[in-house]
Amino acid sequence: MARFYLGIDGGQSSTKALLADETGKVIGRGRGGACNHVGTAEGRAKFLSAVGDCLRQAYHEAGLESDTRFAGVCLGLSGGSEDKEAYTRELIASDHYKFTNDAEIALLGGTAGEPGIIIIAGTGSIAFGRNARMKTARAGGWGYIFGDEGGGFDIARQALRRALQYEEGWGTASVLHKVLLEVAGAASANALMHQLYNQFDRTAIARYAKLVSAAAETGDQVALEVLERAANSLAGYVKGVYENLFSRGEVVPIVYVGGVFQSDLVRRYLKQNIEQTIACPVEGPRFSPAAGAVLEALRLDGNSSPLAGLRPED
Predict the structure, then answer these.
(1) pTM of the model
(2) Which of 203, 208, 177 is nearest to 190 (CA)?
(3) Is the N or the C terminus of the chain less surrounded, counting Cβ atoms within 10 Å?
(4) Distance CA 155, CA 228 (A)
(5) Element (H, E) at 243
(6) Which superfamily is assigned to 4-112+286-300 in CATH?
């Protein structure tokens, strides 16, 4: 009897599913809505709808029936999986299940299932790693109050602090100060700070990180310092995970993911720091988180087939 494998990437904005056969070839795919909260009746309904939509699309493309039993299923879910396991088992029958977080499947996709470390920097930031013994470790990801150093919100916060320092007489003049005020339509950094406090939105504030990158590209010293500090913080996360999982001198891939790494300078600073300290290669992801989930589903069943049949959108 043919054996099939399912990987699901359940995030805060969308859900993706990839379905593979026993050779590792992806034969079905599906997309759905957000599935990160199930604490309310509405949240449970959204979760079941998002995962159900993905499954129906994947079954249809693969030519499988909706009651197909899988050999392995892996779900990487934003916000944790503890409260979602029972609902998932109602929807999906499988010989093996793994419920994990979105960082682990991002790592597995990024390294094509090999041991390594992923550093994620979007609005927030986190590093996650797994070694050959399947031991995992993390650093960061503690939110904008207690952590998330090097993420978009932190970069924007540091830039705004430098603008305030200049206005208070103990900071450095910069192009960045002028750009921040112009884009925000504010008369001063003081006014901009009040504006952001009154309409607090972490994601919106994090978008100012792009202005920091643009100013840094012109050679603005303040912006360069902010980005270098961010990259060094992210490198610190990576080194913390490395020390917990790998022996000194062990070479593993360090994969970067997230909007902050659209900045060439952040990538360059990160690579310089990592290569000079733990001498590991720093690279972009090989596959998507959903593909990482499929690889883990295969591994659960003792199947080491490489993935095939992936499309760019996968």
Answers:
(1) 0.88
(2) 177
(3) N
(4) 10
(5) helix 221-245
(6) ATPase, nucleotide binding domain (3.30.420.40)
